[in-house]
Amino acid sequence: MKALSQRRRHPLAALALLLMALLFTGSLYAAASSANQAQAQTTTASEDEVEEGNKLFVANCASCHGIGATGSDAAPSLVGVGAASVDFQVGTGRMPMQMDGPQAQAKPVQFTDEQVGQLAAYVASLGAGPAIPSEEITDASQGDPAHGGELFRVNCAMCHNAAAAGGALTRGKYAPGLADVSEKHIYEAMVTGPQNMPVFNDANVTPEDKQDIIAFLKTIEEQGSPGGADLGSLGPVSEGLFIWVAGLGVIIAFTVWLTSRSS
Amino acid sequence: MSSTTAAKPYVPKTRVGKVTDYVDSRVGGSGIVKEFGRKIFPDHWTFMFGEVALYTFVILLISGTFLTFFYDPSMAETNYDGSYLPLRGVEMSVAYASSLDISFDIRGGLFMRQIHHWAALLFVASVAVHMLRVFFTGAFRRPREFNWVVGCVLLILSLAAGFTGYSLPDDLLSGNGLRIIDGVMKAIPVVGTYLSFFLFGGEFPGTMIIGRLYVLHILLIPAVILLLIGIHLFMVVLHKHSQFPGPGRTNTNVVGYPVGPVYAAKAGGFFFIVFGVLAAIAAAFTINPIWNYGPYDPSPVSAGTQPDWYIGWVDGALRLMPGTLGDNFTFEFLLPFPWGVNTLSLNVLIPALVPAMIVFTAMFAWPWIEAWVTKDKREHHLLNRPRNAPTRTAIGVAGVTFYCVMWAAASSDLIATHFMVSLNDVTYWLRFLVIFGPIAAFMVSRRISLALQRKDREIALHGRETGRIVRLPHGEFIEVHEQVDDYSRYKLVAFESPEVMVPKPDADGKVSRLDKVHGRVSRFFFEDRVAPVTPREIEASHGDHHEEVAGAKDREAITSR
Amino acid sequence: MADSSHGAPGSSVTVATPGRTPEQFENPGLPPHRPRLADRDPRAEKRAERQVALLFFISILGTLLFFAGYFFVELDQTIARLRLQNLLLGLGTAFAMLGIGVGIVHWAKTLMPDHEVTESRHEIRPEQDRRDAEKIVNDILDESGIKRRPLIRNTLLGAALLAPLPAIAIFRDLGPLPGDVLRQTMWDTGVRLTRDPSGTPIRASDVTIGSAFHVIPEGLNEAEHKLEEKAKAVVLLMRLDPEELNPSPGREDWAYDGIVAYSKICTHVGCPVALYEQQTHHLLCPCHQSTFDLEQECKVIFGPAARPLPQLPIEVDSEGYLVASSDFQEPVGPSFWERG
After folding, report:
1. B414 part of a folded domain
2. Do the Cβ atoms of B272 and C101 come within 8 Å?
């Protein structure tokens, strides 16, 4: 008891107390939140990692998300969003946000992989949430692309386009194209529902289904279009523009040549 | 029939001659050769778009025939087991499965599908450009009004051919297109629901629609198009081709190259060129990747769902129309009748029908509208340069702008994502532009036409600017103008510039209402005009020119000394 | 009739008649012919000849390229191989066609005579022809006697007007009459909400805040008219904070603990309204951008739709699965005349 009372004056004591309080509220929240997230909450992060993550968080994120990630007017609380959410948002460069806008945009990643891991560990320690998926479950070669395609068309294509080229949402928001997005990030986006994307929890789209969707996306990305250049996979609009500009342009060049006098 | 009257029957000497004579004496080929062998066709690059349309149609027939051998228009359910792995085992219609087989399992099938679809896009585009050429040069005037109407019908048929073909693969994209057609149809008052049930053979989507569209696409529509192309070309031969005014070209002659050999070689060669260009495009550029869209299913939809470009403007109009105004006003009206309440969806009917009605009515009626305005009943075989008919040109540009804004609206979501702007703002802007864009385009293009006419006038009067500045003995600097030769000048002055027709009172001293309207319309058309240069004006202007040039010569003489 | 003389091409005023003081410029006639390089220089002519032959030779190579692509590229279910074959077939055809086309045109432009020739136009309808034709038509009418025998004429007219009607009537069986089918869907009291496309039922606890389920009625995959039923019955299931829902009187019990189900078929022209923004609670139709606000019972807040999306009343059955309390209370999808 004496030792404890001595350490009460330690500079980190307030922080530790805060952490404990957060852990407490976080676990309360986790217990209250629905059952299907329970399986994702186990974290194997070491205390050091959490500690380092906390430092990074205070330096880079707390100005918006608040000390202890409890949120502010400018940004939501991160208690209970899970490691997957942090790994996605920070790992794709969306966070920290560069400026206010309709939505956070992917940009060059600001942290090393190690730092992203530490931040994720820290946020995961605040409250249970979806964990970073294992390499096994995001392995595209294990999935069934045909089944994934069916699920993709029903659940994803209306926003992301049938060929995953992206599409518009309301008032300046948009669903990004999915080419060059890593398997892990695709998976994390589905479980966490970043920004305006709905959450596709494991009760809705099972982990195996998610793997199939990733397999579908990686298949169509790698194989390319059998017919040649895909003109951005944007459908009839780009095809119409192409025939008017390039097709008709070449034809007009030929008509001019054909009707001009030879020198 | 027999050659008893001829003193000495013709005996061919060579083997080829014998065969030719055998055929000729039975079908009368000599007469055809006499009529067409040396027929004259004027040569101008803008006259080639009709040919592009004809040739793409031939390519469509060739590639389409290939496709029919493998395509199966059945909507029965099947499980795909072809070569495309990401769709293996997926439940789909036989029509879609056979389209996939054409793409993946039949050698050259993908190439044929792509060249067919690219040719279809180019077909409608070339028909449209051909019509714009005819409109802007005034080639629809007497005696060619009916051929213009035949052309308008051909345009509508080519849209129909395109749309029916777009739907055949029964993929997700075209299925949602049909769903939109179904929705628009149901909005038609009184008969809408019945029309939809008759077209789809019951509730949407049913199992009949693909087969029915197939028959329209491969039989009825191409047959009518072929018939109308025949009439169209017959009338071209009858009228002889129109030509641009220029030295040696008058309203009573045709100047150009004879069919044999030059024109036949150019026109024939051009078929191969169009074919080659389309083949190159089909080799390297994907069109309608049906494997991306998946089979039709009423639940999914893809972002960026649009029709092909020629239907896009109607889709764009559907997007631009607001369904509600403020919090309480909607464009859907409930009409109380003695037998119950009926629904009138003006939010669908207005955009689906009104722009198309405006465009097509104006198009069909234009030759007669313009003839009424100008009261010009003469035959015209000499074309207008677009600048020499400023108001018509401006109306045409306004129409094109109206069309293009709606076309752009059909891709409002792609504009939003590609230019990083808000989808809603794009829609607001385009709503504004669809009304005011054509008006602005009208005013600007009429001014541009008049300005170009004035430039022509300057050149005809004073010659071309040479860029050579000389100083006259009294210190003035002038730019030397070089007079254009007679041939070039004739091109600049050979046009008519109609004047405003003031309504004349009749015997009782009264002006009828129609005449008053006509007077106002005539003022609208011809109030601003630039008259062609007359020989007298040239003579008058030559006085100062001689001085200028003489002065310049003096100056040169001085400097060279 | 008096206008017919105006129609003659000779009456054009663009050509000034010589002898009068010219109001307009006289047509100077065709400019003198300018010989081409190949007309003057035999070497240029020979060169052009070789160029044409070379183009035809390129065409031959193009055809060979097509055969190479067709016979020597074997399809092995990989996309790369198919792309290669498509490229070779296309380029082969392109070279084959362009070689011929460009060759012929080059030949015509450089080696065939390029003197412009003038041909005069003829009157489209010479007056003599008109008179002759008029006489023939009158003779035909006289001989047929149609003018003298109104009884025949009128009965023929009546018959000709009636005769096409069967040709229209026979198309009656193109489809059944609508009846009431547009007002009913597969939803009914106790029908479970299941996932699209697997058809597995959904527990209320599965639907977490922020998630969206694409839903079909139980048994749809086995239904006889599957696509027709699906085209009416597809539903989007979402969960919000119950505080954020503002149900109007009479609709308080249509949601279950913040879980709401709305028809996915747009009330505009029927596209699936499937874009759910989980933060703004807006639904967007990707076809024509109608936007619906979940917090106001899917009221239209932007775009061409005029009516809110119909809501499906839902509850939970004894096993915890979500079920419909009833069918939709109004017809789903685009408006139609009889909708009322």
Report:
1. no
2. yes
Q: Is residue B508 part of a domain?
A: yes
Of C278, C311, C314, C275, nearest to C291 by C-alpha is: C275
Q: How does B328-361 read in b/e, with b if 16+ C-beta sit within 10 Å?
A: eebbbeeeeeeeeebbbbbbbbbbbeebbeeeee
Q: Which of B262, B283, B309 is the last residue of a domain?
A: B309
Closest Cβ–Cβ partner in A154, A168, A228 for B413: A168
**Contact at 8 Å (CB) between C298 and C264?**
no
**Which CATH number goes with the domain that contains A165?**
1.10.760.10
Which domain-ending residue is among C110, C140, C160? Answer: C110
Same domain, B151 and B97: yes
CA distance A146 to B291: 11
How far C146 CA sits from the closest chain B CA (Å)? 30
Q: Which residues of chain B does A252 touch, with a Cβ-Cβ cutoff of 8 Å?
A: 45
Does pLDDT of B394 surpass 90?
Answer: yes
Are A158 and C286 within 8 A, CB to CB?
A: yes
| Number of A–B residue contacts, CB under 8 Å | 199
Tell me if chain A has a CB within 8 Å of the CB of C78: yes
Better pLDDT: B434 or A45: B434
Strand, helix or coil for residue C31: coil
Q: Is residue B304 part of a domain?
A: yes
Report if residue C186 sits inside a domain. yes
Q: What pLDDT, in 10s, does the model give residues A114-144?
A: 888 888 888 888 878 888 888 888 888 888 9
Mean residue pLDDT of chain C comes to 88
Q: State the Cα angle at C247 between C242 and C251, rounded to 5°.
A: 115
Please name the residues between 199 and 238 in chain C that touch chain A, using a CB distance below 8 Å.
Answer: 202-203, 205-214, 238
Number of compact structural domains in chain C: 2
Is B50 an 8 Å CB contact of chain A?
no
Q: Out of C110, C139, C170, pick the residue that ends a domain.
A: C110
> Is A160 annotated in some ligand binding site?
yes
> Residue C165 domain-assigned?
no
Whether residue A193 and residue C114 make contact (CB cut-off 8 A), yes or no, is no
Residue labelled with tokens 């948009």: A174
C104/A contact by beta carbon, under 8 A: no
Specify the pLDDT at position B560: 41
Could you tell me which chain A residue has the CA closest to the CA of B312? A237
Determine, for residues A166 and B266 on separate chains, whether the beta-carbon distance falls below 8 Å: no
Instruction: Specify the pLDDT at position C3.
Output: 36
Containing structural domain, residue C67:
37-110
Q: SS3 for B249?
A: strand
User: Taking CB atoms and an 8 Å cutoff, what residues of chain C touch B262?
Assistant: 108, 112-114
Residue type, B418: H
Q: At which residue do the structure tokens 């070789």 appear?
A: C50
The verdict on a CB contact (< 8 Å) between A200 and C211 is yes
The answer to the question of whether A10 is labelled as a binding residue is: no
Shortest alpha-carbon distance between residue A14 and chain C (Å): 33
The CA–CA distances, whole Å, from A197 to A160, A212, B553, C290, C308 equal 10, 19, 79, 18, 22
Q: Is the pLDDT of residue C6 over 50?
A: no
Question: How many structural domains does chain A have?
Answer: 3
Per-residue pLDDT reduced to its tens digit, B231-240: 999 999 999 9
Yes or no: say if A94 and A105 are a contact pair by the CB < 8 Å rule: yes
Which residue range(s) make up the domain with A261? 236-263
Q: Which residues contact B458 (CB under 8 A, 6 or more apart)?
A: none
Let me know whether C104 and C220 are in one domain: no
Residue A98 sits at the chain B interface (C-beta within 8 Å): no
Residue A250, chain C, CB below 8 Å: the answer is no
Assess whether A47 and A148 both reside in one domain: no
For chain A, give the mean pLDDT.
81
ipTM > 0.85? yes
Q: Say how far apart CA C287 and CA B306 lie, in whole Å.
A: 7
CB distance B424–A248 less than 8 Å?
Answer: no
